[in-house]
């Protein structure tokens, strides 16, 4: 049924989103910890 497939799509989307968000959050933590080391490199190139 359409309702069922909509629910499945929403479930898939929300799990994809939570994966993306987890990755972004982990990157955020990583960047926060290593920003001091990385920043000189970035400022050379950007």
Automatic annotation (TrEMBL):
It comes from the Bacteria. This is Conjugal transfer protein TraA.
């Amino acid at each position: 049924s359409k309702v069922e497939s909509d629910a499945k799509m929403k479930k898939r989307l929300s799990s994809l989103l939570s994966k993306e968000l987890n990755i972004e959050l982990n990157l955020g933590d990583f960047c926060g910890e290593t920003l001091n080391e990385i920043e000189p490199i970035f400022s050379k190139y950007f």
